[in-house]
C-alpha cells in the first residue's frame, strides 16, 4: 500500500519532474522488501535507465509517469482495507506529494479528494491537522510559495521525509507530535517508555526513572503523566506497538487528559544526576 500511495502522490498533478524521478528511484532502492515485487522492479529499472546518462527527457518522464499510474491503478484495493493498509497508503501519498519539495494546486486538491473518499483514513491522528491546513490554503483557490513550503513541512513532519537535505527517500518517524520540553521533574510522576533508546535498554530506563522517584507503566493509560519516546526509530513505526502507544497518547492528550509526549533528550536531562 505504501508503493500505491507513493505513486498516486507523485502522479497527482499528472506530471513528473527530475527530482520526482530521482526520489522514486531512491525510494524503491531503500525499500528492499520490494525487491521481489515485479511492479517495483519494473519501476526501479525504468527510473534507473532514465537516470543513467544524467539527462531526463520529457518523453522519459512521460513514459515513467504512465507506468507509475498503471501500477497504482492495477494494484488498487477495494474500500474494505485494514487500518494499517490505509495508514501505509496515506504515508506513501504524503511522501509522493512532497517528493520534490513543492505542493501545487492540483496536488493539494488531489489530497483533499483522496482523504474525502477514505473514511478510515480520516480517523488517523494526523489527518485533522492536514485537512484543516488544506482548507485554509485552498480558501483563495491557489497555493502560493509560503503555503507550499508549509504543506511540505507538515507532510515531512508526519512521514519523516527530508529528501532535499538527506537524499533519503522514505524517512523515519515524525517528531511533530512531541511536546517541546527540555526537562521534567519525575518525582511522584508515572511514566511509560516506547521505542528504542540510545541511552540504554528498557530495564535501565525503568531503573533510572524509579531512582528519580517515578512510577513506571508498560502501557499507556490515564494514569501515565509522561510517555517518553526513544530516538531510534524505524520506517514502520506506525504499525508497531510503539506507534500504537504514541497514537493512543495523542488521542488522550487531544481529549484533555494530562499526558505529555516527550523525547529521549528530555528523559536524559531529567535524570542527568543519575547518569
UniProtKB/TrEMBL annotation:
PROSITE patterns listed in its UniProt record: BRCT
Any GO molecular function: ligase activity
Entry keywords, A to Z: Ligase
Key word Ligase present: yes
Residue ranges of domain BRCT in the record: 181-242
SUPFAM superfamilies: BRCT domain (SSF52113)
Keyword Ligase carried by entry: yes
Domain of life: Bacteria
CDD domains xref list: BRCT_DNA_ligase_like
Identification of the protein by name: NAD-dependent DNA ligase
Species this protein is from: Alloalcanivorax profundimaris
Amino acid at each position: 500500500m505504501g508503493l500505491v500511495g507513493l505513486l498516486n502522490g507523485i502522479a497527482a498533478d499528472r506530471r513528473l519532474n527530475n527530482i520526482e524521478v530521482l526520489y522514486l528511484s531512491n525510494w524503491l532502492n531503500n525499500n528492499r522488501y520490494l525487491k521481489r515485487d515485479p511492479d517495483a522492479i519494473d519501476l526501479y529499472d525504468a527510473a534507473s535507465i532514465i537516470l543513467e546518462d544524467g539527462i531526463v527527457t520529457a518523453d522519459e518522464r512521460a513514459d515513467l509517469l504512465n507506468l507509475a499510474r498503471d501500477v497504482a491503478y492495477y494494484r488498487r484495493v477495494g474500500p474494505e482495507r485494514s487500518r494499517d493498509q490505509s495508514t501505509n497508503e496515506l504515508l506513501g501519498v504524503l511522501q509522493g506529494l512532497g517528493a520534490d519539495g513543492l505542493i501545487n494546486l492540483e496536488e493539494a486538491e488531489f489530497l483533499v479528494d483522496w482523504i474525502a473518499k477514505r473514511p478510515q483514513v480520516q480517523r488517523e491522528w494526523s489527518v485533522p491537522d492536514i485537512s484543516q491546513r488544506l482548507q485554509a490554503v485552498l480558501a483563495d483557490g491557489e497555493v502560493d510559495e509560503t503555503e507550499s513550503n508549509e504543506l511540505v513541512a507538515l507532510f515531512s513532519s508526519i512521514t519523516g521525509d527530508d529528501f532535499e537535505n538527506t537524499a533519503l527517500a522514505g524517512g523515519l518517524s515524525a517528531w511533530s507530535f512531541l511536546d517541546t520540553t527540555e526537562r521534567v521533574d519525575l518525582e511522584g510522576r508515572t511514566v511509560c517508555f516506547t521505542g528504542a533508546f540510545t541511552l540504554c535498554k528498557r530495564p535501565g530506563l525503568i531503573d533510572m526513572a524509579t531512582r528519580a522517584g517515578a512510577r513506571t507503566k508498560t502501557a499507556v493509560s490515564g494514569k501515565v503523566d509522561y510517555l517518553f519516546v526513544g530516538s531510534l526509530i524505524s520506517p514502520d513505526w506506525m504499525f508497531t506497538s510503539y506507534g500504537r502507544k504514541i497514537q493512543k497518547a495523542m488521542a488522550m492528550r487531544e481529549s484533555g487528559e494530562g499526558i505529555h509526549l516527550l523525547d529521549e533528550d528530555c528523559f536524559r536531562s531529567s535524570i542527568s544526576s543519575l547518569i
